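Q: Structure tokens for this one, please.
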Amino acid sequence: MLRLLKRNRDLIVVSVLLVYPLTTFLARRSAAREPNILDRAVLALTAPVQRVFIWAFDGAGSLWKGYADLRGVRGENLELRAQNRQLRSETNELAEVRAENERLRRLLDYAKASPDPQLPARILGVNPAATLLSLRIDRGESDGIRRGMPVVTPDGVVGIVQRVTGSFADVVLITDANSKIAVKVQRSRVRATATGKGESRALQLENALRTEDLQEGDQVVTSGTDGVFPPGLLVGRITSLQRRNYGMVQSADILPAVDMTKLEEVLVIQTRGAPPSANNPQARRGADTAP
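A: Here is the predicted structure, written as tokens:
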């Protein structure tokens, strides 16, 4: 529309200069007398031109109003998008806070129900070396943490404190290849040893006699005979049996009760701590292998 007006600018100006005086003259005269044939002819000829001008100016005004409205809508759209992003961010933050509060509530409820004093701790980092499955917590000697103390969650056993400084401690996971803890099968009371396989989600049940009653799905708990873990803490469940036709023992795979890859908070059982021994290979490994 704007291009059409620019292209016929001269014609429009001339038409306005011709039509406006004539229309004004006729309008003034029409107030005094009835229009004659000539008046009607002039009005009939100029009416289409008037309609064109009115349509052109109304169209240009509508276009400008539409453009202004469109700019306003675009601005409102941008503002609404920014508000939407802010609300999504706040929603995510609230979800994280709720999840953390729920985890901490479970930890505190579990700690209150335990006969042993337990101290909550946050995970600071995970050792990236595949040769040592361990993590670091934000509690240390200043909090009463000592080497050899068990580390657990409400879901089950996590590991043993291996190295301690003033403000943090390193925990070797029960899934580490050198980890061995005394366990028993909850259903049949069979005593055995749970050995780490060096994988975050794998344990091996060893030293169970071939004649003992083991079944897939059996819950495995700590026996308390190693002097490190209190009895009855959940270690995992048997997922498969390996029973040979020869030999005196059988073995089984154990799925740990705790997913070590998703830990964010743990509890340290504040016992006296276990000294290095044959049942506590994590403590024997020394601080030089810690993350």
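A few notes: Helices lie at 2-7, 9-32, 37-113, 281-284. The chain has two domains: 1-113, 118-280.
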